[in-house]
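Reading a protein record of the kind used here takes only a little practice. The integers have meaning only within a learned vocabulary of local backbone shapes. With that in mind, consider the following protein and its fold in token form:
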Amino acid sequence: MTRKTKDLRRQLRKAVVDHVSDSFLETNVPLLVLIEAAQAGDQAEVEEYSHVFSEHAEKLVEVATLACSMSDQDDGVRMVRYAAAQIEALCPQVVNAARILAARPKSKIAQENMDAFKLSWENQVRILTEAVDDITTIDDFLAVSESHILEDVNKCVLALQERDADTLDRTAGAIRGRTARVCNVVEAEMENYEDNVYKKRVVDSAVVLRDHVILNFIQRVHVAVEAFGSGNVGAVNDIDFIESARMVYEGIREVRKSVLMGRSAEEIESESDLEEEEIYESKSKIAGFGENQSEVDNSRARMMTQWPEEDKKKIAAQVRLSWDDCGMGLFTGLSCAYNQHVPGQAS
């Protein structure tokens, strides 16, 4: 019974973290849309977007309250409740400022008033976000984020196969937002640690993801979206795109694995998507706890980038075939295409 209760609480906790992960993503979008409508003097749109903005604020407060119910950190819970109360009080004031600006879009005073409330709102949302992060288990947050990013990465590849520019652009934006959030949360968590090899490895993995991996992926997305828009589909290299998408998922996984390196065997939950054996096998290979990082084997990827364009096109066709006929995921389809092409690697 104790085991079942513990498992149930763990599942509830992860469900709450799932809500946190979704609700505190791109929190400024409803506000920016509201302000844009107000600056245009469109009072009808301001009323419409005021409802969207208010619902967004209510959702933030609701999820924050839910996070409090699953936390035993009294001081942290008090901070979250206070920040949530500030959001509730500020929301109608922001809406009123937008209505005033919409009625007098050329008024300098109305614009300055809107700017002041915009700044105040962004500061309060940041405070609430940080407070919620403080009472949320980072291990759960990373597990949920990894799952969402894997799902979004596969959506991107499917959109690429279907030449769906809108879905590709929208999903890539979600991936970028989630990775930025992961990096911010991880770096904030590492501020609680003294400088050591463990902290350096975690921070380095987040920096690589944010400053290199995700930028390369977004660049590939922009090329694909522009190519689909202009009808120049041949400008898109499916293999390069899939590889950049795969590296995003591997980057998120590496960040999570680096964080878990600092946990004892008892602290890592048995149901974790990242197997304990993998974590501690990697740990044992790191001299001085992280000096020589174990890396994901990228030999296939490096070999593929050196192949002639004709071979790459053949593999791209095989990836599409694997996806369409077998319903395989991103990485399975890529692996099958590779195995079919390389002599002696066919299954």
Remarks:
- The two ends are 45 Å apart (CA to CA).
- Confidence is low (pLDDT under 50) at residues 270-304, 319-328, 332-347.
- The CA atoms of residues 4 and 331 lie 34 Å apart.
